[in-house]
């Protein structure tokens, strides 16, 4: 069955770089796009970016300068890297299959940015 | 990027009420809109895709409509388990964007 699972550090220092991994199973990242979505505590959802099945990317304009999404197709993994973290980047980070009709989501990983 | 505005941010209603949630886009999104339900501490769940298509396994009391810049999610008869938060999401052009959400509460 289709599964996605995020992993990464729970705590990151401000100004540092966040690195998260989304490990997928039940589908190929060369056949489906994978998006990243985040949610600060008590706030709404924010679409961050997508890596298309072909390997190119599209980012939220507000995050574009700090964000990079890549993948390792042999490991069925998608990576998120975001630099220059601030406390406002504290959030639960989700990966989801697709660019719309998000039927499948990971459980999310909570990341706290400490000053 | 296209901006999505949901209203109201909080909606109070009673069990059995017909409830309508609104989502307005900053430009024509040509029905390229999904609706998601999110319970506290869980990942969002897809309810409606492409404006008015009910996702498999979702109760028929949920329905979606709209065109152009204005879209609605309707719950025909509110149930206690529906009292959570709802988000619209557009994917018409450029980056995707979520609305700010509408949280339902019991009156």
3D structure, described in words:
The complex is a heterodimer of chains A (115) and B (107). Chain A has 115 residues and is mostly beta strands. Chain A has strands at 3-7, 11-13, 18-25, 34-39, 46-51, 57-59, 67-72, 77-82, 91-97, 109-114. The termini of chain A are far apart. The model of chain A has no long low-confidence stretch (mean pLDDT 98). Chain B has 107 residues and is mostly beta strands. Chain B contains no helices and eleven strands. The radius of gyration of chain B is 13 Å and the shape is globular. The mean pLDDT of chain B is 98. The interface between A and B is medium-sized, with 24 and 22 residues.
The backbone outline of chain A, from C-alpha atoms, is globular
Mean pLDDT of chain A: 98
What is the subunit arrangement here?
heterodimer
| Overall SS class of chain B | mainly beta
What portion of residues of chain B is helical?
A: under 10%
Q: How would you sum up the major sheet of chain A?
A: 6 strands, mixed
Query: How many H/I helices of chain A?
Result: 0
Task: Report the strand count of chain A.
Answer: 10
Structural class of chain A: mainly beta
Order of helices and strands of chain B: EEEEEEEEEEE
Helix content of chain A: under 10%
């Amino acid at each position: 069955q289709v599964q996605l699972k995020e992993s990464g550090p729970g705590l990151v220092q401000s100004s540092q770089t966040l690195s998260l991994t989304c490990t997928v199973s039940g589908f190929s990242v060369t056949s489906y796009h994978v998006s990243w979505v985040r949610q600060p505590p008590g706030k709404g959802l924010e679409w961050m970016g997508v890596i298309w099945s072909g390997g190119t990317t599209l980012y939220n304009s507000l995050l574009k300068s700090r964000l990079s999404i890549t993948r390792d197709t042999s490991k069925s993994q998608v990576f998120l890297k975001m630099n220059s973290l601030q406390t406002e980047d504290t959030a639960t980070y989700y990966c989801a299959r697709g660019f719309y009709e998000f039927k499948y989501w990971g459980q999310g990983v909570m990341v706290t940015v400490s000053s | 990027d296209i901006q999505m505005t949901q209203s109201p941010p909080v909606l109070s209603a009673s069990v059995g009420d017909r409830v309508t949630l609104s989502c307005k886009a900053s430009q024509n999104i040509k029905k390229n809109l999904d609706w998601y339900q999110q319970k506290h501490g869980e990942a969002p769940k897809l309810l409606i895709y492409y404006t008015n298509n009910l996702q498999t396994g979702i109760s028929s009391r949920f329905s979606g409509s709209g065109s152009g810049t204005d879209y609605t999610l309707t719950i025909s008869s509110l149930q206690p388990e529906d009292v959570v938060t709802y988000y619209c999401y557009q994917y018409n052009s450029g980056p995707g964007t979520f609305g700010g959400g509408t949280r339902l509460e019991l009156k």
